[in-house]
Amino acid sequence: MITKISIQEAQDSTTQMAQWVDVRSASEFAAGHIPGAFNVPLDELDARLDDISKERPVVVVCQSGQRAAIAANFLANCGHEVLLLNGGTNAWRGAGNPIVQSVKSRWSLERQVRLIAGLLVASGVGVGFLVHPAFFGLAAFVGLGLTFAGLTDYCAMGMLLAKLPWNKATKCPTSPHTKDEVVA
Question: How far is CA 42 from each of CA 15, 25, 127, rounded to the nearest angstrom?
Answer without folding.
Answer: 22, 8, 38
